[in-house]
């Protein structure tokens, strides 16, 4: 395990010049409750996200993935350790938002009483984009996430689960995040819809120089999609590195078990 952490904490030289670090977590822990009810959700996690990469965070239910996502998105504060945005000031100056989080359950982020047009336009209107421009941007965003224009006047209840995730992605993209966090967004989808969403995310990364923190409990789904990944267990990272390397030559027994479980599922 110490070897894995060394790789993760590698020197700038080893990372290369065109692979700039966007976000750095150093010794981040998060505890909930106290006394007998104390839960350590995240345990001394250090990692670096680069610009324009897909980083997958893999772990079983309860391993601390969503807590990590929420700390990075600024919705939770670490109990200890630091989270530092490195290229963020520059990005914000370019009018990009730093980070957007898309949840597993789209109903958590989509107001059921609003029309799709209003849902996707809201982040733009909050940024004082005028209505006509917002309308045009919404149409472009819908097209970009491959949703039919006919959906504009519908409400979330009239959309499929896959469509709702695309709406949530469009809403996140409206403010051009430097980092998109996708927390188990394909877990409720059938395999074909999941593959389509992964293809969409991959093309968005290429086109927008965006990084994606892709969270899932299914290691076998990220091969060929993630650039790097970390495997979490009980709040700690057990293995981290190049995705291809880990998927083909997992070092930890835990990672091997996760892979095997996925292959035989
Ligand atoms: P995952 O997303 O990998 O399923 P979570 O980050 O949701 O894991 O949870 C990690 C651990 O922290 C779990 O034991 C969970 O019960 C606990 N936990 C998460 N959020 C809270 C909270 N707000 N209060 C108390 N415990 C929490
Ligand atoms: Mg979770």
Topology:
Blueprint: H1 2-8, H2 12-15, E1 21-32, E2 39-50, E3 54-59, H3 65-72, E4 80-85, H4 88-93, E5 99-102, H5 116-126, H6 131-144, H7 161-173, E6 179-183, H8 191-208, E7 211-216, E8 228-233, E9 236-242, H9 243-248, H10 253-263
Parallel strand pairs: 3-7, 3-8, 5-6, 6-7
Antiparallel strand pairs: 1-2, 1-4, 8-9
Helix pairs in contact: 5-6, 5-7, 6-7
- Measured as a percent range, the helix fraction is 25-40%
Widest sheet: strand ordering: 5-6-7-3-8-9
**What profile does the largest beta sheet have?**
6 strands, mixed
What is the rounded Rg? 19 Å
What does this molecule look like?
This protein has 265 residues and is an alpha/beta fold. Helices cover 37% and strands 24% of the residues. It has 10 helices and 9 strands. The protein has helices at 2-8, 12-15, 65-72, 88-93, 116-126, 131-144, 161-173, 191-208, 243-248, 253-263, and strands at residues 21-32, 39-50, 54-59, 80-85, 99-102, 179-183, 211-216, 228-233, 236-242. Strands 5-6-7-3-8-9 form a 6-stranded mixed beta sheet, with helices on both faces. Strand 8 and strand 9 (236-242) form a beta hairpin. Helix 5 crosses helix 6, helix 5 runs parallel beside helix 7 (161-173) and helix 6 packs across helix 7. The longest helix is centred in the last third of the chain and has 18 residues, at 191-208. The radius of gyration is 19 Å and the shape is globular. The protein starts with a helix and ends with a helix. Magnesium ion (MG) binds next to helix 3.
Write a concise keyword list for the protein shown above.
265 residues, alpha/beta, 9 strands, disordered N terminus, binds adenosine-5'-diphosphate, binds magnesium ion
């Amino acid at each position: 395990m110490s070897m894995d952490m060394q790789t993760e904490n590698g020197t700038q030289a080893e990372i290369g010049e065109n692979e700039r670090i966007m976000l750095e977590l150093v010794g981040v822990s998060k505890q909930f409750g106290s006394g007998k009810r104390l839960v350590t959700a995240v345990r001394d996690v250090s990692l670096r996200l680069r610009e324009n990469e897909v980083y997958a965070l893999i772990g079983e239910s309860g391993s601390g993935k969503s807590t990590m996502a929420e700390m990075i998105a600024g919705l939770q504060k670490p109990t200890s350790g630091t989270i530092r945005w490195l290229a963020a000031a520059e990005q914000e100056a370019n009018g990009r938002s730093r980070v957007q989080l898309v949840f597993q359950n789209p109903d958590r982020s989509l107001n059921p009483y609003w029309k799709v047009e209003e849902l996707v336009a809201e982040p733009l209107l909050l940024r004082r984009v005028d209505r006509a421009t917002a309308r045009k941007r919404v149409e472009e965003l819908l097209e970009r996430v491959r949703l039919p224009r006919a959906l504009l006047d519908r409400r979330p209840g009239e959309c499929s689960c896959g469509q709702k995730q695309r709406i949530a992605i469009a809403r996140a993209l409206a403010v051009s995040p430097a980092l998109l966090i996708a927390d188990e967004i394909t877990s409720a989808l059938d395999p074909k819809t999941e593959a389509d969403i992964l293809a969409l995310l991959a093309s968005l990364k290429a086109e927008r120089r965006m990084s994606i923190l892709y969270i899932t409990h299914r290691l076998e789904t990220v091969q060929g999609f993630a650039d790097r990944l970390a495997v979490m267990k009980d709040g700690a990272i057990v293995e981290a590195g190049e995705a291809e390397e880990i998927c083909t030559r997992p070092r930890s027994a835990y990672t091997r078990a996760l892979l095997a479980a996925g292959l035989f599922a």
